[in-house]
Design goal:
alpha/beta, about 25% helix, six-stranded mixed beta sheet, five-stranded mixed beta sheet
Amino acid sequence: MEKNKTILIVAVVVIIAIAAIGAYMVMSNGGGDKSTVSFLVEDDEGVYFWAEGSGSNAFDAFTNAMDKLGYEYEVGNMGADSKIVNSINGLANPAGYAKYWQLYYYKDTGLALSDLAINNIKGSQTLALIFDESGDLPDNVPALSEKVVRTNSNDTMFYIQSSTGFWAAYNGKGTTMMDAFKNAMDTYKIPYNPNAGGIDWIFDDDLDMKKSGDDWYYWQQYVLNSTKTEWILNDKGMSDTKTSDYDRMCIYYGKYGDAPSVPIKENEYVTVTDAVGNVITLAKGSPLCLVSSNQAEWAQILGLEKYIISMCDGAFENAVLNDELSKKTNVGPYKTAQAETIANSGCAYVINPKSMGLPTAVQAELESVYGIKCIALNGYGESMLSDAQLFVDITGAGQDRLKDYKKTYDEVVNYAKNAAKGATHTDTFLACLSTASDSGKGMNYYSISSEMGKNLLSIDGVDATVELAGDKGAKTFCVIQGETIFNYDQEGKLDYLFLRTSASVDGDLQANYDRYYNTNYAKYGKDLNVTKNGGAFVFETDIMSGCRDYIGILAFAKAFGFDTGFYDLVKLANDFNTKYGFKNSYTEVLLNVPSS
């Protein structure tokens, strides 16, 4: 390739010596505070990328910029006080420095070689690291006005590798690889020319198909194999390759048959088994759509907001989510959700509950038409902690926050269960939603297989649904007539009644009980014995399920009469909300209902 030559009288070793002397100098546009520095990084074939970082000097800003983009680099020392860049993304300074990563700075007339070491340059500015012989520049060095810095993205990623082994990454959106590639090149102002099935040239029209001896060099397309461990030659044109099939592509300028060397990082992909046993391999950090409010709350607890791109409106029902989650795209009610709407939100996967999730037909359409799989994850019940771990595995983030949550969870639950040691498990209880209504058809009571039923049984008592409805735990709820419950109570057989409040009454626990009682038992004209005997309790719904259920378990121990020690239920709930950024607080979470 022809080069633009900047004639220099000094040899490479002299340049390096000057850089070392420059360690005692400070450029006029710099100070000692942290500054933002932009970098053009380009090899001698003309493949380049822009990056941006901050630091107290340009060396710190360079390492910050590379780390933010996940790029590889090595640095070294030249003398006691001078730092140099040894390699970037697979291209290293050779022995003898016939070519090396030269440091330039932008000025009005173009680029000029720096006579300072990179760690001695301070202040906000734009620099260039260009791999070539001393003073040589590729033909296609971009102007400062063409600078576009890539940020990390969940779009389709294109790794573009030169014949030198140097590579750059660009992200783009589109249904096909060709659409996404064009979007990436246009977004980052990279010159290119496509053809019907692939690429004529990128960066420079001199990087087109060429023959050298018996070998042809051209831009080849590679995708990952099914195990995400190896680049393999794409057997279709870019216009016929869907981005739903591959989340990345390597476009490599080299000899036919030579594979690219862009690294496939060990931790980029994870294979998970979801809550229904599906085994799914996915890229960590893929954009997700959530279906339920339990999932949204866990995303907030674990700090996974940036991985969530959309949610069904049920996930927004918890109005106390933080601002970041509250502003995600709403794809509508889960019962009537449209696959196209979910796909258009930009998600790569849907986190779907095992029950009360997307319709089966919508799930099938998401996968068959849009290549979007549903990952089963509830976020509550017996699988809650393993579901939270699954969230961490999928995103590659939040492990420390989950560990911290588990510490509190285990402390509180163990305290409650230790307090209840020696329980006789002879008192009977019923548990239901305070919004439940009989209307002559009976109403739903939590069964022994429900989350609430299991939590109650772990502390004390006998679930009366087994006797009254012959419940064997096949369903979450069992239907019992109000008259049956009333008679059971009047016979003195019901020791506890546990009501889960409705958010619609906004935490007024007494009003919840009054509504329940008046709806279901007023026609009998008598108070329930369970209330007269002090066995009726109303619980704030938030602590009954999902991420706060450890507070509910402690509340059950208190309702059963066990000593909960130094724990204050209201404080425990409010501390949780404050710690994880939920915008609500409580004045009461448990009420022993007086006789109405």
